[in-house]
Amino acid sequence: MSTYPIGTPGQKWGKAEKAEWLAKQVVKRSYRDEVLAKVEKLREKLDVERYASLSYDTERYPLMVIKTKHWHSDKPTALVTGGIHGYETSGVQGAIRFAETKMEFYSDKFNVIVVPCVSPWGYETINRWNPNAVDPNRSFYAGSLAEESLSLMKLIESLSTELLVHIDLHETTDTDNSEFRPALAARDGVVNTNWNIPDGFYLVGDSENPQPDFQQAMIEAVAKVTHIAPPDESGNIIGAPLEQHGVINYAYKPLGLCAGLSNAKYTTTTEVYPDSPKSDDENCILAQVAAITSGLDFVIADNFL
Prior knowledge:
By secondary structure, the protein is an alpha/beta fold. The protein has 9 helices and 10 strands. About 45% of the residues are buried.
């Protein structure tokens, strides 16, 4: 791959390089039109609230949470998050589609929380990072430097409920190789060695709490909607060994991943591939919804809810 156009190879970015990177970012789509407008239409059947605003532009970037009505402390709580990486479109739109079409159905079994777009600046500029060149999905820890991550953690803490389920929606795209992996290597002054782009859907479980049956149930359901990513010639997906068909594991909490923000028993991170010739935007949204519903269905059966 060619050298990234910002910084000096082998040297970490300082303030000047981060400022240069930020100056190149431009708004490419509307958070208000594509996200907020859809969320606002849900107010009649669901509780919709602003839980914070991003300091970059508090009016432009309100952070919204959608909750089922008739909240009860004796019901388990399930969290769905999207748009941790703003550029991963089906994570945002899949969370909204679930809220539009399926969320109420699960309200008799769960208190359901949907946070559809954790990183709205990233959504508008189609970015993995926030304006400070910080990855929100490596920033879920005490004293986080990403206000997107910190705001979500504060929201969950404020609800005074223990999560049983957390499904975090993501994508892997061709721009991971053309932009985001090279930018990461340049920012950190390292050489990237992983260029694998899996063709299809896969899940990332928690290596410290893998819940393989939970992951398998989702893979089997999503396989009816879209194709599951095969491993590469080394038996890996994005450099991690395959644990079962369509599933790899990461250490959520040590890596500061969103899906590790709580001690929920059932956790997963979805990944779809919108650039596949076998898929399209709508198929990716439907795959995200299938992952959520099949995960919740498994938890209901597994816990006799």
